[in-house]
Amino acid sequence: MQDIRPWGNYEVIKTGDGYQVKILNVYAGKRLSLQTHNHRSETWYVVSGKGTAQVRGASLPLFAGVVVQVPKKAEHRITAKTDLKIVEIQVGPYLGEDDIIRLDDDYGRIV
Questions:
Q1: Which pLDDT tens digit goes with each residue over 61-93?
Q2: What is the DSSP letter of 31?
Q3: Residues near 63 by Cβ (< 8 Å), separated by ≥ 6?
Q4: Residues 6+ positions from 13 with CB-CB distance below 8 Å
């Protein structure tokens, strides 16, 4: 089942003890919030599309075949130039969506 977000959607395809695998679809011209996580790291495998990743202030190009590591507590964001499809692997002791700490958000979701 897809979870719809203002930037696109994601689907959880596998969850296990200490890990979760998602497929992210980020629409062209959209971006995720600048965020951190206290309990998990993430690895992004770009399947298709083009964009940029911001990780700890560094800007990294995203295109098919690129792998990006996001350590726990690192500020990060994805911006799509074209539609992006990304396999995201989360690893950590807690993987709930309430572990997202939004620092900047285009959609008014900072609380």
A1: 999 999 999 999 999 999 999 999 999 999 999
A2: B
A3: 46, 49, 50
A4: 21, 22, 23
Q: Helix, strand or coil for residue 93?
A: coil
CATH of domain 2-94: 2.60.120.10
| Residue 51: strand pairing partners | 62, 80
Give which of 71, 45, 37, 43 is closest to 56, Cα–Cα: 71
Give pLDDT, residue 110: 86
For residue 72, how many C-alpha atoms fall within 13 Å in the half-sphere facing its CB? 10
Q: Which residue bears the tokens 């062209």?
A: 28
Residue of 47, 74, 72, 81 lying closest to 58 (CA atoms)? 74
Global confidence as pTM: 0.95
